[in-house]
Each structure stands twice: as C-alpha cells, then as structure tokens.
Write a structure and sequence with these properties.
The N and C termini lie far apart (about 40 Å). Helices cover about 65% and strands about 0% of the residues. α3 (about 35-45) runs antiparallel to α4 and α7 packs antiparallel against α8. It has helices at about 5-15, 20-30, 35-45, 50-65, 70-90, 95-110, 120-125, 130-150, 165-170, 175-180. By secondary structure, it is mainly α.
Length: about 180
Amino acid sequence: MNEETNTLIAKIHLNKTNIRDFSDWAVSCLEQDLDTKNIRIVAAMYDATSLSEIDTYFRRSLNELGWEFPQEKECLERYAKSVAQQIVDKTISPAGGCEVFYEIHCSLIYLNEEEQFNYFRDLYWCYKYLPVEEIDLKVIQEAERYLSGKKFIFPKNIEEKPLFAEIDKKESFLSKIWKKIS
C-alpha cells in the first residue's frame, strides 16, 4: 500500500475525510497507472452525496489492488511517521503537524495505545501559552526523536528548565495539572 492510501485510511480512522478526498485519491491512483474498475468509479464520484457509498467502492478498489484495509493502530502509527517526516522536512508546519499528532493521540486513547504521543499532546496545548517559535522548535525536535525510535522521557533533573516553566508562572488550568503530575 502506498503512503497516499495509508494517509486517506488514517483520515478515515480520524473522521477527517470527505467525498472529494476519495475521488482525489482515485485520480492520483490513475495518474500512477493504478487502474481498476472501482478506482475509476471512485474517481467519477467527486460529487457523490453518500460517504458510505464511496467507501464501499474505495474498499473494493483496495481489494482489486491486493491491498488490505489496515487496522487502526497500525495505520495511525504509519501516518504518524509520515507526519513527523513532513514536520522535519518542513512540508507541514510544526503547529499543523502537532495538531495531527494530537488527533492521533485522541484516537489511540480508545485503543490504550496513546502513550508514545503524550508529549505531542502536551506540546499541542503549549501553543496557547508559550511563544510559537519556542514550541515549533520543540515540535521539530520531538518529530526527529520520534523518527529515530527513541522514547521521550520527561526531565527528572530539577536543574533542567522544564518546557512548562512559562505556563507555571501563569497558574493556568494546564499548569495546575502539570504540577500535580510532575
């Protein structure tokens, strides 16, 4: 399965798709010489009114290509790596990428698999409280760390300046929570 298809399926899992996403995917497949009967049908359905109808043809397209519809966890983890790479390559803004990671985190909570994205979740909320440039740098660093396979561990050394230092000064709701879990 190609990355574009995985991205579309991830967006299905995140409830972030519309009919045009499917037809755009199908047109892209045809441009890549991935030509099947059902892909042609999906490409022609750009003005369809039923998402469930186009989803049926989309899944048939996957079967015709010999691709399986991946499980949610597997699909979202692959999508997360793609988004992290886009952050590092600067083809997506750190804030935009962080927002996607936050959505992935929220989706994986239901699968009890969200732990690896907790730091992205926290960074997402920091955009409201800290300078954008500072958070952008942290998001890029975290994307690089994530791609390297290293697990993030919150600083234990009291000498280290915590990311949330500025938030702590404001005594916001988030800082109160942060103090309780630190």
